[in-house]
Structure formats: C-alpha cells, structure tokens
Amino acid sequence: MQPSVLVVEDEQAQREILAYNLAAEGFRVIEAADGTEALLLIEEETLDLILLDWMLPGTSGIEVCRQIKAKPAFRTIPVIMISARSEEVDKVRGLETGADDYIVKPYSVIELLARVKAQLRRSRPGSVGVRLVYEEIVLDAETHKVFRGRNELKLGPTEFRLLTTFMEKPGRVWSREQLLDRVWGRDIYIDTRTVDVHIGRLRKVLGHHGEVDLIRTVRGAGYALG
Amino acid sequence: MQPSVLVVEDEQAQREILAYNLAAEGFRVIEAADGTEALLLIEEETLDLILLDWMLPGTSGIEVCRQIKAKPAFRTIPVIMISARSEEVDKVRGLETGADDYIVKPYSVIELLARVKAQLRRSRPGSVGVRLVYEEIVLDAETHKVFRGRNELKLGPTEFRLLTTFMEKPGRVWSREQLLDRVWGRDIYIDTRTVDVHIGRLRKVLGHHGEVDLIRTVRGAGYALG
DNA sequence: CACCTTTGTTACATTTATGTCATGAAATCT
DNA sequence: AGATTTCATGACATAAATGTAACAAAGGTG
After folding, report:
1. Which one of A96, A118, A153, B4 is at 20 to 30 Å from B43 when CA atoms are compared?
2. For chain A, what is the domain count?
3. A77 and A49, same structural domain?
4. How far is B219 from chain A (nearest CA, A)?
5. DSSP result, chain A
6. Is the CB of B221 under 7 A from strand C?
7. Domain of residue B203, CATH code
8. Does residue B73 surpass a pLDDT of 60?
C-alpha cells in the first residue's frame, strides 16, 4: 500500500532530489516537468498526493492546482505547493488556489516529508467503513472483524486484505498477479507462488470449524470466492 | 433534532475539514467564506452555534462577532472564535468581543468537538450527550472522570482523549495516523510509535485492577476498543 | 526554586506475520 | 499409463510489528 506522489518541478536537479527523498521514504514517485504533463499524469495514474512547484514554464503551478481542484474526481487529492520566497506564500494564499498546504524554499527535507505524511494521513481515512457479506461470511472493514456464522475468525493482515478483495467481487477469478498487485501492492517483487501459501492460510482459517471450502481454485488462472 | 452550525472560514481547505468533522458528528453545517456572507446567513438561517475564524478578508472575525452580539435576536447564539496563534487569544479576550469560547490552532478535532458540544449543552440543554459508556467503562466528558465499574481511574490528558476517541465508536479500528490527528491535533509531527506508548499507558490504567484488556491491537492497522 | 506530572523518543525484548522452499498430491496432457 | 504441469501444505528462517522500560525535556504547581 505504497502511496503515489506526483512531483511537478521543472528544474531537473530539484526534481531528482525530491524524487530521491520521497522514494527513500517508501513512496512511489511519478515525475512531471511541466503543468501540461502533470495534468495528463493526473488522469492516467492513481495519485495520492501532488507536490507542485509554484513556478513552472507554460501553465503555472497555481493554474495547475486550480484545474485539479476544479475536477470533482481529483479534488480530494491533496496538493502541496512549493514556492520560492516566503513573500509569495501570502500571494498564493490570497489567490485561493485551493492548495492544501504550502512549503517555502529553502525547506528541510524533514519538513517536507513531515508535511507530505501529514496530508496523506488526513486524506486517507482508511478503507471505507463497509460491511461485506457473502453467504455466512461477514467482514466488517471498520472494526476489522470477520465472522463465519457465529464464529469470529482471526486473520492475519495479509489474509484479511485477501479476503476483502475476494468479497468485493464474489465469484470473480483473480490471477496471482492481480492479487499481488492488489493485496501486496504494486512494484513489489514476490514469487507468485507465495499467493498459494496465503490462500492456503486463508482456507485454513475459513474452514477452521470444518465448514466447506468457499475458495475455488481455477487451474491455470487463479482463485475466486465461491 | 440536529443542531445547525455555521462555519466562517476563508480558507476552503480548512473550512471543508471543519464541515466534514462536524457533519460526521451529526451537525447540520452551513458554510461562509467571509464576514459579509456570515452576517447574511445569520439572518436567514436558524443557527445554534457559530464557529468563527479570527482572520477573515474584509470584515474581520472580531467585527463579525461584535455585530452578532450587538443584535438582541442573535446575542444568545454561542460563538467560538478560532485564532491562529496562542498570543492572539489574549488580544481576542482583551478586546472583549463577546465570544463565548476560543480555540487555538493547531487544535485537535476532539477538542473542537468537545467545545462545540459544551457550548450547545449550555444553550440547548439535553441536546448533546456528555456521558460515554462501553461495557463497564463510563466516561463523563463534563467532569473528566472515568470509571471502570466502581473504581475511578486516573488518566493523563492524552490518555483521556484517546479513550474518548475509542468510546465514541467502540469497535472501530483507528490507525495510528488517525489517532495522531484526532487526539494530538493536526499540523503536529509526532512519531507514530508514540501512539503505541500511550496505548500502553492507557491499558495500564484500564487494567489496573487486573481486569481484561479491552483495547484490541489490530496488526498492520491500528487499535480499537473491544 | 524544587518537586511532581506529563510527554515524546529511544532501545531492546517479544510476539506475530511473511516469503521461500521442499515435498507430495492432483489435475491435465500425450 | 506415464509424463508433465499445476497446486497444496508443512517447515523454517527471516522480517516486521508491537510491547515496554528507561530517560530526558517541558510544563505546571506550590
């Protein structure tokens, strides 16, 4: 569950520094050198946060921010503006671009990362508080509790996410690759066979009281619930 | 009957955060971006409380407050002022604007909601709950006293707010980040592991007489009550 | 000022979860 | 059937997450 951060900065050196530090902190970093590229990437990628330089060639940072905030689909993505001088902060604020935070050059990497994390913390209130039901299995995302009939099941984090995925679309067949992407996270290199092991573990817990196996193995394709 | 709260704040992001949290708590939220708009809405809407930012473009928050308090028809509506720095509190107080309470940024959501409820309780007795109960634990928000069965527990401020958060939604799993936001306050950068320590402290007090541990650790996710 | 409380961080111990591998079973193909 | 591929599962070393004691800084109180 690596958050994706888009870095929009025209100066290559600056951009690389940002990218390096963010990557070191475990973020997936996507880079854009100007506003046009940024706006394209916003559509294509699934972003969790945008770091936006105030000064950009062509479409200015402010304009990019305004356009992002104008689209309902992307309005909720936090935008942190980076401006060159402290005096400009007031201008930016005054212009009401809708940025979620501002940071002024020169900034410390620590400060930047802290703000990035603060924004992510705020915008990701965890998975949606839903209750998934399939046959006699009930999964409550808010309390993280899982029941089969009357029995509460004790699942490890990975098995919990695995089951959540299955229950979001009962019957759908997921390939091992898809499950790795969704349950483990993208850009992670893990043997696809590992999925088998976790499926086994999930089966063990689900059938702990001798119930029928609800997970279906689809030979050559993957697994499905029911 | 849902109490109506008017939020007067020029920064859209801030305003939305306030609106979101108040709405989540069951309030009807009305928003205004400046003093003029606020004064209009006060006439039009039937308000139960006003949250007023000190810094506003045009008519300042102080001026808005003064005008509200000058009209006999609206004088009884509680006004909570929000100011950016603690030093300003004194100014605000000194100016005797007639505000009913003050809150300083950065504030925790818990604190804000507590104050809102406290004001509403004063003006509309009986409309806001003050006492949280979960199993044999009783938390009285007004007196700040906590009991487990017959024993009164002595909690530090942080542990008290932690427990309050948990008791508002028993069973719900809170991530460390969410707890930091809610219990410690936004715009504060603290190591997430610190949450663990405070959970430990809270557990110690709650189980001081050898009772079962009511706080559940959810690996990879956070903590929950029950 | 001395004293006490609260707080955040750190370091280390402990628990729990994870990924890989080896082996054998089951399905599929020739 | 025999060969081949695909899957299930127990074991195990490692990694990751959590619990907790100790400590120092900050703040409050008398």
Report:
1. A96
2. 2
3. yes
4. 6
5. -PPEEEEE-S-HHHHHHHHHHHHHTT-EEEEESSHHHHHHHHHHS--SEEEEES--SSS-HHHHHHHHHHSTTTTTS-EEEEESSHHHHHHHHHHT---SEEEESS--HHHHHHHHHHHHHHH---S---EEEETTEEEETTTTEEEETTEEE---HHHHHHHHHHHHSTT-EE-HHHHIIIII-SS----THHHHHHHHHHHHHHTTTSPPP-EEEETTTEEEE-
6. no
7. 1.10.10.10
8. yes
CB of A218 within 7 Å of some strand C atom: no
Q: Are residues A55 and A161 in the same domain?
A: no
The pLDDT score that the predictor gives to residue A95 is 44
| Domain containing residue A82 | 4-123
In Å, what is the separation between the CA of A156 and the C1' of D11? 19
Q: How far is the CA of A7 from the C1' of D24 (A)?
A: 39
The residue from B123, B158, B177 where one domain ends is: B123
Do B13 and A93 lie within an 8 Å CB cutoff? no
The confidence band for A92, taking pLDDT boundaries of 50, 70 and 90, is very low
Q: Which residues of B touch A159 (CB under 8 A)?
A: none
| Confidence check: pLDDT of B163 > 90 | yes
